[in-house]
Amino acid sequence: MSELSELIAKLESDPDAKVIVFESSVPDFFLAHYGVLVDKARTAAMPQGPTGMHPWLDVLVRLSRAPVVSIASIRGRARGAGSEFALSCDVRFASAEKAVLGQFEVGVGAVPGGNPMVRLAGLMGRGRAIEVVLGADDIPGVLAERYGYVNRAIPDADLDAFVDRFAIA
Question: Per-residue pLDDT tens for 112-132?
């Protein structure tokens, strides 16, 4: 979280930065989730970010407000915190074959912490957002596009070139 916060601070202050693409170098994962087995006291003790919120919420809010176009290029799992991070980006492109999005928290008796309900409702409508959050199901890339979770589901072989062209445009 501290490294993401530092990166966002650079985006907030660099007038030459126009676009940023987030992708993963780890096969099968964009960003899976925040560790559910992590020491909750350690998480609660983390200092607030510049917005005055918990560091994770701070990163998500600042990313969504950053004066650059943020693009999530999703290949693999983006569930829980990974989904929330992607939702904080301005644009989301997903591998049609490999992307899997979702909010698993309700399925394990937890509350989604990064405000996915509001972001999802704005993208796909209240009913679909409730389905995603309460259902806690995996949402494959093609269905994510149909629901409005992502802008487009692109054949995996074409994803990188498409995102590069979009970012340069």
Answer: 777 788 899 999 999 999 999
CB 5 within 8 A of CB 49: yes
Tokens matching residue 87: 């939702």
Phi, psi (deg, nearest 5) at residue 75: -130, 110
How far apart, in whole angstroms, are the C-alpha atoms of residue 123 and residue 117? 10
Tokens of 117: 């309900």
Please tell me the pTM assigned to this model.
0.91
Cα–Cα distance list, 109 to 80, 133, 162 (Å): 13, 12, 38
Q: Which residues are catalytic?
A: 84, 105
Ordered domains of the chain (ranges, CATH)? 2-168 (3.90.226.10)
| CB 117, CB 155: distance < 8 Å | no
Do 21 and 71 contact (CB within 8 A), yes or no? yes
Q: What is the pLDDT of residues 67-105, one digit of tens each?
A: 999 999 999 999 999 999 999 999 999 999 999 999 988
Residues 5, 55 contacting (CB under 8 angstroms): yes
Own/partner pairs, 123-131, CB within 8 angstroms, 24+ separation: 123/87, 123/148, 123/149, 124/148, 124/149
